[in-house]
Every structure is written in C-alpha cells, then in structure tokens.
Amino acid sequence: MLSSMTRRRFLAGLAAAGLASRLPPALASAGDSPITRSIPSSGEVLPVIGMGTWRTFNVGTDPGLLDQRARVLEVFFERGGRVVDSSPMYGSSEAVMGRLLARLGRREALFAASKVWTRDEDETRESVQRSADLWGVGRFDLMQVHNLLGWEGHLETLKAMKAAGELRHVGVTTSHGRRHDELERIMAREPLDFVQLTYNLLDRDAEARLLPLARERGIAVIANRPFQGGRLFERCQPHPLPGWAEDAGVSSWAEFFLKFIVSHPALTCAIPATTRVEHMQENMGALHGRLPDEAQRRRMADYVASL
Amino acid sequence: MDYALRDLLMFTPEVYLRLFIRVNETLGPWLAVVIAGLAVMGGLLVHPATAARRLAFMVMAAGWGLSAALFMARFYAPINWPVGWLAWAFAGQALLLVMTVLRTPPARAGGLPLTVALAVLSVMSLTTALAAGEWAALALPGATPDMTVLTTILMLALLPRGWRWGLLIVPLLWCLFSLLTHWALGLWRPLGVPAAGLVLGLAIGCWPRRRE
Lengths: 307, 212
Description:
Chain A is α/β, with parallel strands linked by helices. Chain A contains twelve helices and ten strands.
C-alpha cells in the first residue's frame, strides 16, 4: 500500500503523538513525508529506499574507510532509511555493518536483512547466528536464502526459526535475472514474506510474471541492482534529464532510476549501494516527493532505451 | 542479463589500493629493512659465491612469507576470501624456494640483465602509487604479492630449466588471479605487473639457463 500522506499531515500526526521532537533534522527539511510501503505478510511499514552493501561496505578494518562509510550510513538513517541488506558473501560487509551500527547507535531504526549463503543445508542456524553476531543484532528482521543456494533445506529451517520467533521475516533472493523460472515455482508454493530480485530500467524481466505473482501471493519485493551495477549512470549521465522529469517527481538521475523502480505497485523497496555521502543524499531524494504514474513510467523506460 | 567479471568482485578499487597504503603504514620503519633486503639481494645475485646466491633466494622466500602473512592474510583476505587460501600457497612457495636452492645452486646473474631487471621492477613498483595518487601506495617486492611474484619469476631464470616449472605453478596461478582482479577493478596500470609476470613466467619456463 502506497502512503499518500502529505508533509503537513505527517507533521501534524507526529505532533499529536508527541513525536515531532524526535524527527531527524534532515527529514524535517526534506520537504515531505517519506514514501512507504507495507510488508503484506506483517503489515509493517517500510521506507521504499533501503541500502545495499554489496562491494561498498566491504572495507575490512581500514579506519579511514570505516569513518567514511559511517558517514554514509548516518546520512541514510538521518534521511529516513531503515532497510539495510547484506550477505556473508560480501566479504567483511556484515562485520563492518556491526561495527558502524554500534558506533552510530542506530539499531532501533534498522530493518536488518541478511542472507544464508552456504551449500550445506544443515548449516542454516549456524550461518544465521554468525551473521547476527557480526551485525550485533538479537534477531534479524529478514533472513533470505542467497541466490537460491540450497534453498529447500535452508528455507525449512528459516520457517521454523520464524515460527519460534527467532526471525521476523523470511525470503529468497536472486540477482542478474537468473533462475527466474525456479523463483516463480518457489513463490507459487512457499509462504514467503519477501523475494529479492534484480529490477531496474534495463532489467525488466520480472515485470512479466514475478511481480504480478508477488502481488497475488502477498510477497514483499526488494529490488537489487537498481543502477545495474552503475551501468545506468554510465549510460545516462552524459545526457541531461528530460524536461518532463520534474513532472514525474524526479530531480536527478539517481531519483529517475529509483523512482521508476519503486513506483511499480508490487515493489516494496529498492536497495541502492554507494560509498559516497553525496550519492546517498541523492538516493534518499527518491524517498520523497511524487512518484511517476504508469504513463510516466513508460516514458522513462523509452527515454533510457533511446540513449 | 548475465554476470560480468566485475560483478563477481566484492570490493572497490579504492579499497584495494588502500591495502598497499595500510601495509606500508604497518611496516613503518621496517620498510627500510625490506628495501635494504632488496638492495642486498641484488648484490648477492651477482656474487661469485654459491652460498651468497642461495642466500638471495632465501631472502626472497622470506618476502613470500611476509606477503602471505601481512598483505594477504591480514589485510586482503577479509575483503576477498579466496586470498586466504592463496596465502597458504604463498607460504608453501616460500618453503619450496628454500628447499630448491638448497638442492640446486642458482647461476650468477649478469650485471646488465640485473640492472635492467631492477629498473623494470622499480617502475612496476610505482603502478599502484600512480593509480592511488599517493606515494604511500608503493608496492614493494617482498611485501606485496604481485611484485614479489614478478621479482621471483625473474630470479628463476638463474635456476636450471628442469627446476623452474615446479616453482612457476603458484606464481603463474597468482598472476592469472591478479590479472583478472585488476581487470575487473579497471586498474589498468597495476594490471601490468601480473600481466608481465604471466608473459615472463611462460618465457622463463622455456628459456635455457646461462651456460646451461
């Protein structure tokens, strides 16, 4: 469900609830309320822009780079972000996230999403526990099976862990448009809370069957690779934004790419990754303002295809 | 849509180049010892005494150990997990180098080839510094894997051809791994080091030893 609350109503609501003083300053000056979607299975509301950590937060123990990433994460939370996604596959990213969350003290805002990434289907619990220790979280808001690796065994255990209250939501992931047929079969038969898949202006295979199926089955959708690993910027940034972009609620290429994604009614959240504060600020711009309508979405796709 | 080589890498060029700075910072004053060791090694390789030339190879073996323990295991492996395994291969190569030179003496290096090799290695050491835009990112043989491998490959020309191939397996595998890594990162100048290592490794594997 798309929130259509205005800034005035949002602030009035906060004031009435005595929460206005807790409003992050950057959000207060952002101009309107964040765009949110609810998770169909739990009703929990999430901001539509989250954060990925693939490549960007794998900095080991480098003090200089840790400071830099701390600033990126701080801006993410200040601008209203909540969903952070990582994986044991991403090198030191989970450990880095744990260190930075402890440093910033922002765990209360976090919607922590990670993955199980091992062929050994008996190792699910150990993998979840290792990740929880690295992140420093008691339990994950979302635990996913990474790239469907050993998904049958892992998903059974994750479902049992969710039933026991050890996890809040469970899901599976794919990327690069791979194994969509298998993902479709899993979505059709398993009680998933989330799926994560690649969806962006250039990779739109998911529109045909997976996104309609997600709506039908009440599965939240996280879009990874929203910039196609940076290739969308390489392709589009030499060109100006089209004159009609402002009508679609877009003021930068990052917003152009992200608002296209999150304006699809089946999408819950997109998870762009960045190493730079200014890019995070641009990304979080897509959390506010208007979203393009269906006609504008078609126009956006046509424009990018023409470049 | 399919995986590209760069989609398989889990870190950015910035993080990779920072590894060189961090290794140099960690070594601190010991960098002078590494540089002195390299200078002494050049002298030992042209020395008429067999024991001196053997010692040069043992100094290089120590460089393999240092690269494995510091650069690879401590700094690189946490961001690129296959490097943890390759660090063990480096440690094994260090032992293999020592065992080989104890069994077969290296030939004496010629003055001109040694001078040319030192000049080439000096230039190659600068490629990471140029890519990072900082002198602190200098890659020294004996402290960083690519330069250690390239230096060793050149030294293997001093061993009988029959012994070289066994000692070329780890260097050539590393060069291939490193070449693909640099390619995926788009670090073209530092890519020259493993590329040169691959070409020279294959050439030296086939090249006859002086006076052989």
